[in-house]
């Protein structure tokens, strides 16, 4: 048991799931902007829109007053999609107490600035310890009580251990890591590769194709990570390979779903119009391209995904192109 009070922002699939997990260890106040969601969590102990069929702990309290969630919190957790992350953080700033750690659950980059979420936290809330919880963590599976593992990454090796126990429970095993950038990058980049894998699945490609994309995707993730000074081991861990496998193979993944529909020949605008949940890879792809250029790293799969997302080519054309490109050494970028 922990004495820390937690303010968790974001009443979507993952915010609600993490709130339910942490409630076992500490009191959690979940802020959601939608008043109906707040009422449903408090009265019915469910969030049917995002987690159909799941029963939430009765102890979990939701509010639509962000001050109520943040002002008394010893830890603030951000479950807000990346493109809205900064605006919510600006609100957090009005209520948060000094030195309270802020942990991101989000797996995207801010489009205009190409910043990671922990960078945004440090910019908006200087002086607050920052971290990220990330790994192969499909929300609905965890709510259904299936075992999973995750990583909490913070630069401070002491604070990270304190927070490890806050997020851990019997079926949710949380490891620590001090490579914040590597862990965060893993979560961002696997979404792009999951879109590529989805395209292949939508086009009827085989298991060998999927395995090749995952492996070559991991190689380009590791190259960008190396250029950005990350620890190479991070990418073979839960935040890298682990999350890559979960997202690239699960029917639950929203990013893979976007890829499947692109593979069937639909446009991103059409696919997005009928999705109410976020697919971070589709939003972050241009920022990933900008990072690759900034660090001089070749990312052929991410580039193809970006070109399909932006309507410059089709999934069918890039998959045909893949077969035409001659392969070099396995250590080469192509
Ligand atoms: N769903 C999953 O299995 C996992 C998701 N993540 C990451 O967690 C982050 C959040 O994703 P999900 O909860 O899955 O998304 P979601 O699409 O299920 O829910 C997003 C929630 O954010 C809220 N929201 C959006 N903009 C807002 C704003 N300006 N102010 C207040 N609330 C706002 C929405 O109302 C919604 O409740 C994403 O970055 C995602 O990549 C990470 C691990 C697992
Ligand atoms: O990050 C996730 C699993 O770890 C969720 O993936 P999707 O956003 O593609 O559903």
From TrEMBL:
Pfam families the UniProt entry points to: NAD_Gly3P_dh_C, NAD_Gly3P_dh_N
Residues holding NAD(+): 10-15, 139, 254
Residue span, Glycerol-3-phosphate dehydrogenase NAD-dependent N-terminal domain: 5-156
Keyword set, alphabetical order: Cytoplasm, Lipid biosynthesis, Lipid metabolism, NAD, NADP, Nucleotide-binding, Oxidoreductase, Phospholipid biosynthesis, Phospholipid metabolism
Subcellular location: Cytoplasm
Ligand binding (sn-glycerol 3-phosphate): 107, 135, 190, 243, 253-255
Chain residues that bind substrate: 107, 254-255
Catalysed reactions, semicolon-separated: sn-glycerol 3-phosphate + NAD(+) = dihydroxyacetone phosphate + NADH + H(+); sn-glycerol 3-phosphate + NADP(+) = dihydroxyacetone phosphate + NADPH + H(+)
Record: residues binding NADPH: 13-14, 33, 50, 107, 139, 254, 278, 280
InterPro entries hit by this protein: 6-PGluconate_DH-like_C_sf, 6PGD_dom2, G3P_DH_NAD-dep, G3P_DH_NAD-dep_C, G3P_DH_NAD-dep_N, NAD(P)-bd_dom_sf
Any one GO BP annotation for this protein: phospholipid biosynthetic process
GO molecular function: glycerol-3-phosphate dehydrogenase (NAD+) activity; glycerol-3-phosphate dehydrogenase (NADP+) activity; NAD binding
Active site: 190
Enzyme class at the top of the EC tree: oxidoreductase
PROSITE patterns, per the entry: NAD_G3PDH
All residue ranges annotated as the Glycerol-3-phosphate dehydrogenase NAD-dependent C-terminal domain in the record: 179-318
NADP is among the record's keywords: yes
NCBIfam families listed in its UniProt record: PRK00094.1-2, PRK00094.1-4, PRK12439.1
HAMAP family xrefs: NAD_Glyc3P_dehydrog
Family: Belongs to the NAD-dependent glycerol-3-phosphate dehydrogenase family.
Name listed for the protein in its UniProt record: Glycerol-3-phosphate dehydrogenase [NAD(P)+]
Annotated organism of origin: Kineobactrum sediminis
């Amino acid at each position: 048991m922990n004495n820390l009070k937690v303010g968790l922002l974001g009443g979507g699939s993952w915010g609600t799931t993490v709130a339910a997990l942490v409630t076992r260890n500490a009191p959690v106040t979940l802020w959601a902007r939608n008043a109906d969601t707040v009422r449903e969590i408090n009265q019915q102990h469910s969030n049917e829109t995002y987690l159909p069929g799941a029963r939430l702990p009765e102890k979990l309290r939701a509010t639509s007053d962000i001050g109520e969630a943040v002002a008394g919190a010893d830890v603030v957790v951000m479950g807000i999609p990346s493109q809205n992350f900064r605006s919510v953080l600006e609100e957090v700033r009005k209520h948060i107490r000094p030195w309270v750690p802020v942990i991101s659950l989000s797996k995207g980059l801010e489009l205009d600035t190409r910043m990671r979420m922990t960078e945004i936290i440090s910019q908006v809330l200087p002086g607050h310890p920052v971290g990220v919880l990330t790994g192969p963590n499909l929300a609905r599976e965890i709510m259904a009580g299936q075992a999973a593992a995750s990583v909490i990454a913070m630069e401070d090796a002491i604070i990270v251990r304190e927070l490890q126990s806050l997020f851990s429970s019997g079926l949710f095993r949380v490891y620590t890591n001090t490579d914040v950038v590597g862990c965060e990058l893993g979560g961002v980049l696997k979404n792009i590769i999951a879109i590529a894998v989805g395209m292949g699945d939508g086009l009827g490609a085989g298991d060998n194709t999927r395995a090749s994309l995952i492996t070559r995707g991991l190689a380009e993730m590791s190259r960008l990570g190396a250029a950005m000074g990350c620890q190479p081991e991070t990418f073979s861990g839960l935040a890298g390979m682990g999350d890559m496998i979960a997202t690239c193979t699960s029917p639950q993944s929203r990013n893979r779903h976007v890829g499947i529909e692109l593979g069937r020949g639909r446009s991103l605008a059409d696919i997005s119009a009928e999705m109410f949940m976020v697919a971070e890879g589709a939003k972050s792809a241009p920022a990933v391209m900008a990072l690759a250029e900034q660090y001089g790293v070749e990312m052929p799969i991410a580039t193809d995904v970006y070109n399909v997302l932006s309507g410059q080519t089709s999934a069918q054309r890039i998959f045909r192109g893949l077969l035409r490109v001659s392969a070099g050494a396995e250590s080469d970028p192509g």
